[in-house]
Amino acid sequence: MSERLDVYLARRVGSRSKAQKLIDAGLVRVDGVPRPKRYVLTGDEHVEVGELPEAPAAEVEPARFSVALEDEHLLVVDKPPGVVVHPGRGHAQGTLVQALEGRVAGGPDPERPGVVHRLDRDTSGLLVLARSDAVHAALQAALRERRITREYLALVEGRPPARRGTIDAPLGRDRRVRTKISTDTDDPHHAITHFETERALPHDTLLRVRLETGRTHQIRAHLLAIGHPVAGDPEYGHAGRHGLRRQFLHAARLAFEHPVTGEPVEVRSPLPEDLVRALRQASGERAGRSV
């Protein structure tokens, strides 16, 4: 039975377009001779098909960041939203630690050199990274012993019933939605979050939040658990609130004792412009007024 070469090939490689690409690349030979797509097979020929070369990986721009503090022992980085801290599933390139190659070190995981703690991709603000194994170990110990102060500013929906409070609720993978963290879990881990009101707004509240533990998505999951999700949070709240394109969560203050010199370190980061705009909108202020 006669059959066009491209039709015959499409059944074997999965699509007409892939067959066309193979033929155009000269990777299809009939009895050792390259043939066009309209060539008609009679059924007695030997068809050889080569492999298409893999497409080159798309070039990824280096991660953006600014340095808030740096010495020979450690770095405090101010991370913008949209930057992933270290490589992981779906983020093989363009991470913060790759942009800091040669400037950070320490820890058991070669994919996470110098990383002491992390921020979610769309959470902005401060994090500290080590430049040696000894400093990494000292900072990790300080984190475990709760000697590193991590304060965040979070705009939440509604108004908590008290001006300040503590959320002491174990967190783990949600029973139903495995990509989310929640208190409804089969694998609970101790988690404590402290909060106090920074500013009461008409329909929202700006909170200053302090982490006592550091679970994945802890602030976002804990605030949702008390009925006040972070504004704009696409996973734990309502995307787009006050024009936000991410959650209103910013690591605004980091304080700790320097692991080598023993001197107190305190670094602050102002709200980035997108959160300033959202706060103005939530406050009912005009863009020209200060926040």
What best-fitting shape do the alpha-carbon axes yield? Answer: elongated
The CATH class of the largest domain is Alpha Beta
Q: Which H/E pattern describes the elements?
A: EHHEEEEEEHEHEEEEEEHEEH
pLDDT < 50 stretches:
287-291
Helices and strands in order:
Elements: E1 3-4, H1 5-13, H2 16-24, E2 28-30, E3 33-34, E4 40-41, E5 47-49, E6 66-70, E7 74-79, H3 96-99, E8 124-130, H4 133-144, E9 149-157, E10 164-168, E11 172-173, E12 181-182, E13 192-200, E14 204-211, H5 218-225, E15 249-257, E16 264-268, H6 273-283
Parallel strand pairs: 8-15
Antiparallel strand pairs: 1-4, 2-3, 2-5, 6-7, 7-8, 9-14, 9-15, 10-13, 11-12, 13-14, 15-16
Helix pairs in contact: 1-2
How would you describe this protein?
The chain folds into 3 domains: 3-49, Roll (Structural Genomics Hypothetical 15.5 Kd Protein In mrcA-pckA Intergenic Region, Chain A); 60-145, Pseudouridine synthase (2-Layer Sandwich), CATH 3.30.2350.10; 148-291, 2-Layer Sandwich (Pseudouridine synthase). It is 18% helix and 27% strand. The protein has 6 helices and 16 strands. The strands form 4 sheets. Strands 6, 7, 8, 9, 10, 13, 14, 15 and 16 form a 9-stranded mixed β-sheet that branches. A 3-stranded antiparallel β-sheet has the order 3-2-5, with no helix packed on it. A hairpin with a 3-residue loop joins strand 13 (192-200) and strand 14 (204-211). Helix 1 packs across helix 2. The chain starts with a strand and ends in an 8-residue tail after the last helix.
